[in-house]
Amino acid sequence: SAAGVLVCLLEYPRSKRKKGSTMERCGQKYMTAVVKLFGPLTRNYYIRAILHAALAVPAGFLLSTILGTVCLGIASGIYLLAAVRGEEWRPIEEKPRERPQMGDTIRQPPSAPPPRPPTDARKKQPVEVGG
């Protein structure tokens, strides 16, 4: 059960994508601080692959934990493949929100009037009642 807690702590915070944006999980910023605390031990995917493989070995001796063993083995393979491709875990850091400058929020009034329909179309059409 301690191994499960360790895997959950390690896996819960999402890594920042190279391209695009990444949605942060609920409460991830607290877990990210824990993962960042261990530095290269948790960022390096080679180490994660070895850790998952090492945790899978003792779980493979019991029939009741064979499914967890398979999952840890697959995760180990995925981390190994990601490490070979040069990926690593990067924290999602919020960018400081820039406050808008006062001059940028004031807009100039329009220089041209809004478009209007021709005068013929503006005349009211008589409304026919009944028919």
TrEMBL record:
GO terms under cellular component: plasma membrane
Cited InterPro entries: Cyt_b558_asu (IPR007732)
Keyword Membrane: yes
Molecular function, one GO term: heme binding
Record field: compositional bias (Basic and acidic residues): 90-101, 119-131
Alphabetic keyword roster: Cell membrane, Membrane, Transmembrane, Transmembrane helix
Annotated region described as Disordered, given as residue ranges: 90-131
Residues annotated as transmembrane: 49-82
Protein localization: Cell membrane
Family: Belongs to the p22phox family.
Protein name: Cytochrome b-245 light chain
Organism: Calyptomena viridis
Gene this chain is encoded by: Cyba
